[in-house]
Amino acid sequence: MSESVPTSTAGSLFTTVRRGAVHRWSRTLIPTARDAPADAELPSHIFLTRAGYIRKVGSGVYDYLPLAKRVLSKIETIVREEMDGAGASEMLVPHIVPIELYKGTKRDEDYGDLLMRFTDRHGRDAALGPTHEEIVTEMLKGSVNSYKQLPVNVYQIQTKFRDEFRPRAGLLRGREFIMKDAYSFHLAVEGEGGLNETYDAMYSAYENIFRRCGLDFSIVEAEAGPIGGSASHEFMVNCATGEDTIMVCPASGYAANVEKCETGERAYSFASAPARDLATHHTPKMPGIDGVAEHLGTTPAGMLKTIVMQPVEPEECGPKWVLAVVRGDHDVNEGKVRDAVGFAVEMGDEKSAREAGFSIGYVSPRSAISIPDCLLVVDPDATSPEGEGGTWATGSDKPDHHDTGFNWTRDLGAELPEPGTVSPDKTVLGDSVKVADIRNALAGDPSPRSPGATLEAKRGIEVGHIFKLGTKYSEAFDFSVLDKDQKKQAVIMGCYGIGVSRTMAACVEMSHDDNGIIWPAPVAPYHALICLVKPEDEASRTACDQIADDLSSRGVDVLIDDRKERPGVKFKDADLIGIPIRITIGPKTLEKGGAEVKRRREEGFGEVVESGDVSDRVFALLSSR
Hints:
Layout: E1 3-5, E2 22-24, H1 43-50, E3 54-58, E4 61-64, H2 66-85, E5 89-90, E6 96-98, H3 100-103, H4 107-111, E7 116-119, E8 125-128, H5 133-141, E9 152-161, E10 176-186, H6 195-212, E11 217-221, E12 231-238, E13 244-248, E14 255-257, E15 279-282, H7 288-296, E16 304-311, E17 321-327, H8 334-341, E18 345-347, H9 350-356, H10 367-370, E19 374-378, E20 392-395, E21 401-406, H11 408-412, E22 428-429, E23 433-435, E24 456-470, H12 472-476, E25 480-482, E26 488-490, E27 492-499, H13 500-510, E28 512-513, E29 516-517, E30 528-532, H14 538-553, E31 558-561, H15 567-577, E32 581-585, H16 587-591, E33 594-599, E34 607-610, H17 614-624
Parallel strand pairs: 2-31, 5-9, 17-19, 19-23, 30-31, 30-32
Antiparallel strand pairs: 1-11, 3-4, 6-8, 7-8, 9-10, 10-27, 11-12, 12-24, 13-14, 13-24, 15-21, 16-17, 16-18, 20-21, 22-23, 24-27, 25-26, 28-29, 32-33, 33-34
């Protein structure tokens, strides 16, 4: 299931009856700046810093100043309302996770250096949680012992930690971030109270959350990654500056991230007669595949890239090594290799691979013949090439050397699968060779859902991710319950995350111009900004106070710019901080009968509205969005 969801339209912004806040700029902390930080490249980093929302404390660590805190609080309120409405219960667990809780799931190894570790004064090892699957599973194990207590869905909103080597992009890739994480526990996958029921409820809740936040987003199929699990979807904010690539089929609506995206059937053949002899070339210290290709008189598309991988659990499967072969300008997709061979794989340990005889960096498909216990997996595009005389450039299986003229039929023919031998999963089989889709999808690839259509690439920022975890964590913690037949059964889990601080940054990436931020009204720190041209003018102050009170009574949050600054400075700051509606009050507007009302996203001058009608006009503009 996938779809692109447009920015929300009005309806629910002021459904809760409450008085809006009325604050004065001169009495809060909004330290706007003319220049961006030297390390800021993305709009969210630039504008959130310049507009006084965040302030850098250290690498990947930021203060959230009053404007940012108001945005975060509004996002959190929407999240809480939708999570509560979907049947989840809020709780809170510690930031500190004893390291032994990670041992059973091996996530201390999976996260590696990203896990922010420390040792306390008593010598106990712990980590600051990046997520809390382990600690929540351990908590539920101590609280639930019967199927009658299931299902349970709990969530929290708190700060998480990830020791990024190179924090960048402000709040999008930091070492400390605010996240909503939820965990559900079930006896079954299907049926009432099953995992699928809650997963679908979370899917709908996430749609509601991001619609209510005013975001333009897509829902895409995704890989589970280090969390684990059998199925997952990502919620991606659509924007040109997004850090993630989304592959979309415009004909069918299919969408997936680049790690998960399938491709349609691609023709392949090994049967190509060689037009060149195999020749070996000395390629010492060449700077990557582009340099090697240039030296050999070809292009990366004319080369084969052979990646040495190995089973994660070698005792549970046949081969000791898996060689993944793709075209030189393509990237191997580990998840697709896993699906093709039927077991989990990882990059080969370099020391063990060298000891086995692999010349790392110079491996060719011929290694599958010379080194025992190898399974060769070839992407269709890496079989016989069009042109190039039916030959490829490859590694030479010895350091600092590459070959030209490699031909599958001549140089590996005895090991190739017979044409037309197809397994149930459409993977072509041989004794030790498979042909399967094992590379990252690219724009222009055939769609896997609509014959004749091709995939298109979009950019996005991940703000939400939901997973069907299965029993990975419950089995690691021996968390089982008695079913209705009094038999022990491992509890089935789901996991559901939202990056709250990432959502704030993604709003800015999605909605800004050269002058600053353009907040979606539901999450804006204030809905309306009243700009007093002359704060010392009593008539202006009286009109301002009356308009602010009228708006507040209708639930509109108001910021009054009462600073003794030039109008030009105030207008520039108003655009920078991005409040949806600007109301300008001064002697000239009062002479015309009232105040100028202008939407942030519109250029030029606003419309002059009579003072008594300003509240209605602003409320109408906010409600229509």
